[in-house]
Design brief:
Strand content: under 5%
Radius of gyration: 22 Å
Largest sheet: none
Number of domains: 1
Number of helices: 2
Order of helices and strands: HH
Structural class: mainly alpha
Shape: elongated
Length: 91
C-alpha cells in the first residue's frame, strides 16, 4: 500500500510499530545473556503491538478492505487467472 494513500492515524500506527520493532531488535541479546529491558517493559511493548494491530484491523474493516491480502512482486506468477467466457453465436 502506498503511504500517500494512508490516513494520518494509519501513518502514526505504522511509525509506532516500526519504532517498537527496532527497539526490540536493538535490545535483543544472545541466549543466556540478561536482557536490558525489564519484564514489565517487555510486556508493555507486547501490549502496544496488540493495540496497534487491533486498531489497524479496525481501520481496514472500516474501509471495507481485505485483511488477508499479502504483498507480492508484480512479476510474480499469480495463482489465479481471469478467463472471459463468451456465449457461442446461435445460427
Amino acid at each position: 500500500m502506498n503511504t500517500e494513500n494512508l490516513s494520518k492515524e494509519q501513518r502514526i500506527l505504522r511509525a509506532m510499530r516500526k519504532v517498537l520493532a527496532n527497539i526490540v531488535k536493538d535490545t535483543t541479546t544472545k541466549p543466556g545473556m540478561p536482557h536490558p529491558l525489564s519484564d514489565s517493559t517487555i510486556q508493555d511493548i507486547r501490549e502496544c503491538f496488540g493495540v496497534i494491530s487491533e486498531r489497524e484491523a479496525e481501520l481496514v474493516d472500516a474501509l471495507g478492505l481485505n485483511r488477508n491480502e499479502k504483498p507480492y512482486y508484480t512479476d510474480q506468477p499469480q495463482k489465479t487467472n481471469v478467463i472471459d467466457f463468451h456465449r457461442p453465436e446461435e445460427n
